[in-house]
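Thread amino acids onto this structure.
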């Protein structure tokens, strides 16, 4: 493995719990660009080769943030490396609804092993570059696009108005007509 990848891994492994590291507290200067790319299907590559160790992908996804400049960075307390993301850095791999009516909660599982509940903190929107597929907003400026299978699963959960309900909020997922004005 490349020395840069090993250095980043060493900084964030150990006794601490990094399921939700305090990225908002880490503001190191830019260390540079690292040849890591996340393609439109959420697959991670380093120097053109797939990153095959899921533990590395999971670890890096938890120290990833998107900043106000629109760029994505792997951030530790001491380093900040810019990476390339083709579309969305994470993928929703499963969706399930718990409860009914106004008590319904849409629970999503992501490809990095984390879960989120759709609601005001994690709203749904659609991705016009992918034919209106659903996308969920995540902490640190990140987003996760629904996989094809999960998008079909979500379509089964929509009401007759093409709206999904979660935590008392409503998220229309049908293509919205352009405003003629």
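Threaded sequence (181 positions):
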């Amino acid at each position: 493995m490349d020395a840069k990848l090993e250095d980043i891994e060493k900084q964030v492994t150990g006794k601490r719990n990094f399921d939700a590291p305090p990225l908002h507290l880490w503001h190191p200067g830019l260390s540079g660009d690292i040849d890591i790319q996340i393609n439109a299907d959420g697959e991670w590559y380093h120097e053109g080769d797939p990153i095959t160790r899921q533990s590395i992908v999971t670890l890096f996804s938890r120290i990833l943030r998107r900043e106000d400049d629109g760029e994505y960075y792997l951030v530790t307390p001491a380093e900040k490396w810019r990476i390339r993301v083709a579309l969305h850095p994470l993928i929703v791999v499963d969706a399930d609804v718990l409860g009914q009516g106004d008590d319904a909660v849409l629970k999503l599982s992501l490809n990095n092993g984390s879960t989120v509940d759709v609601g005001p903190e994690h709203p749904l929107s659609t991705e016009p570059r992918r034919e209106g597929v659903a996308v969920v907003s995540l902490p640190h400026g990140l987003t996760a696009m629904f996989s094809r299978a999960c998008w079909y699963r979500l379509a089964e959960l929509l009401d007759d108005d093409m709206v999904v309900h979660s935590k008392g909020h409503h998220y229309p997922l049908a293509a919205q007509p352009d405003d003629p004005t």
